[in-house]
Give the backbone structure.
Amino acid sequence: MQNIRCQLLAIFFAVVFFAPAVAAPLTAQDYMEINQLYAAYAKALDTNDGAGEAALYAPGGTFADAGSGHKPQSAATLAKSAGAKQMRPAGGHMLMNLWINPTADGATGQIYSLVVSEDDSGTLDGYPALYNDTLVKTRAGWRFRSREIWTGKEKMPPPDFNAVKNDKFVPDSKAIALPNQAIKALTPEDYFEIQQLYAKYAFATDEGDGPMRATVFTADGVITSNLTDHKPGTMADMVQRTGRIGRQVRPMGGHIMSNISLTPTLQGVRGVAYAYIGGKPGELKGTPIVYNDLIVRTPVGWRIKARNIWLDNEKDSPFHPGACARAPCGPLSPFSARKNDP
């Protein structure tokens, strides 16, 4: 009897002290606060508020960048930093594609930044950057535990997506649209989950990772673009095509997403977003595109069922500047201008 009791106690302590920690899901409140944390960072940086920037880190927090040789430095030193104030709105840090994943002790965050500045002649220059962060929830709210910044032409190591243990967008045959009986209003959780779809799509595309890119689509999802003559392509086609595109030299290049507009419909959600595929550092030259999406709720969460990608210079695009001269531009008319649009 004594031996059985000892064995049970040993099992109990093994479970309590050695079982792997489980990541708690993030709430809409968490996503909102983390978004505000990133916005506050940009504001502090662009107004030369070193103390305000340092206050966004948890006690003992660290940052690393080219200036430190990418070796972690105490974030407390930021309070004494004296950077140049950006002349907004001509200059400043524009942050996009925030991809957040929960961890056992907080969350990880990855985000693109486009730093815009104006020279004496009035010419705008753009410098892309990528932030890799770990986040922790403190009594004062969410804070950065660590931050590594990659800018310009730095040769950064490819991100280890296998380290993202709690990515909710994984291959799943159950990712098929659920039937809708009526148009349903989106909850805050819905909005944030769909925003994460867009962010992960950008990271996967810029890594040339076709299988990862496919995880944001339904199992029967389709994608069309100028590469398919705007005829629906399958997920297998997209996986192969993404692999051929190859990895973008981030942070120099990449898909910078913005203006994500979501409208509930009977089929699910109509999503329209702008994207800018960055060019060389120091040049605001790139490729603007528009995503026209049908997003549906599945048993495993929100997924993109159909995506039509339009380059800004395609004259047949319903989003082309001349589209309104060809047809009335009512609330939804541009989205049905082409038969293959979702």
Remarks:
- The chain has two domains: 20-165, 168-337.
